[in-house]
């Protein structure tokens, strides 16, 4: 089968190639083999330990990058339940196994959710990481509830835009941040107020119940002071160096969750959230896309198999 492989850690992007003789994956117990229609990737994933080793720390190069996917079930592993052959699915592949930039991939069934027929594969492949990250930050870790105030850094970005919609949906007051050009978009998404991080003091946000950070660095450090007693600072950027005085600070890595994916898909169907699809490229262009320094707005999607 066709797929993208990376030869070794030192080669990085330069070692990324399209191959036509990649071995067909083996379905372990409770796995499914998915015929991949569209896939997403994270530009920095070649630096992740899981890209190069399995769960036991053993080398697994050459590896296949990419973790977000949308496609259809081609094969069921022993003991797999809840999905059927030919079913449309989307989700998030394991960090320490070969990824989704290939025609077929083995994925734990629990990491996939049914994909409604009226959501196309390109949109579905853009949803798992951004959608699950936003959901888990707000509801699993911060336990956001109606009437609270949440400050969302990068409110117009891929993760922030979904977080803004989700927070507004449950009745929270949303303060978005970003650059000046993001103001209109953040307010359109439902933010009640917006702070330009380049020109306006962060302290203008006042005290908040929840800070959701996707930026890190100095912004993350200074955000701790905004969290009121009993509140929560949640970040995906790095472990917090500064703790809220009387609150919690949480760093987390997103995990797949079928129930949450299903909730997100329902919101895509009725227009409550919109996956941020950016550029779409064929599989053969994936190495060049990884190497490019030009980042277009939205999630870059690789079209693996034509719909």
TrEMBL record:
This is NADP-dependent oxidoreductase. It comes from Nocardia albiluteola. CDD domains: MDR_like_2. It holds the Pfam family ADH_N. Gene3D superfamilies: Medium-chain alcohol dehydrogenases, catalytic domain, NAD(P)-binding Rossmann-like Domain. InterPro entries: ADH-like_N, ER, GroES-like_sf, NAD(P)-bd_dom_sf, YIM1/Zinc_Alcohol_DH_Fams. Residues 12-302 form the Enoyl reductase (ER) domain. It comes from the Bacteria.
């Amino acid at each position: 089968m066709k797929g993208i492989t990376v030869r070794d850690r030192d080669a990085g992007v330069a070692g990324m190639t399209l191959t036509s003789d990649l071995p067909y994956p083996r379905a372990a117990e409770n796995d499914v083999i998915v015929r991949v229609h569209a896939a997403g990737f994270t530009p920095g994933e070649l630096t992740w330990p899981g890209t190069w080793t399995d769960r036991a720390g053993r080398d697994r190069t050459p590896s296949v990058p990419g973790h977000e996917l949308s496609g259809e079930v081609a094969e069921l592993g022993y003991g797999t339940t809840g999905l059927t052959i030919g079913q449309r699915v989307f989700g998030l592949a394991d960090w320490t196994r070969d990824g989704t930039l290939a025609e077929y991939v083995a994925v734990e069934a629990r990491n996939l959710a049914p994909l409604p027929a009226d959501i196309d594969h390109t949109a579905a492949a853009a949803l798992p990481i951004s959608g699950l990250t936003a959901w888990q930050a707000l509801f699993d870790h911060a336990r956001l509830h109606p009437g609270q105030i949440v400050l969302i850094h990068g409110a117009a970005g891929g993760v922030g835009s979904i977080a803004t919609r989700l927070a507004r949906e449950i009745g929270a007051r949303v303060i978005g941040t970003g650059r000046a050009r993001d103001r209109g978009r953040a307010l359109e998404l439902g933010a009640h107020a917006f702070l330009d991080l380049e020109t306006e003091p962060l302290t203008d946000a006042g005290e908040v119940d929840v800070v959701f950070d996707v930026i890190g660095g100095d912004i993350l450090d200074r955000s701790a002071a905004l969290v009121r007693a009993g509140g929560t600072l949640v970040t995906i950027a790095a472990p917090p160096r500064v703790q809220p005085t009387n609150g919690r600070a949480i760093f987390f890595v997103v995990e797949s969750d079928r129930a949450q994916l299903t909730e997100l898909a329902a919101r895509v169907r009725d227009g409550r959230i919109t996956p941020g699809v950016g550029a779409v490229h064929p599989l053969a262009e994936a190495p060049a896309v990884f190497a490019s320094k030009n980042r277009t707005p939205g999630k870059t999607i690789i079209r693996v198999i034509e719909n």
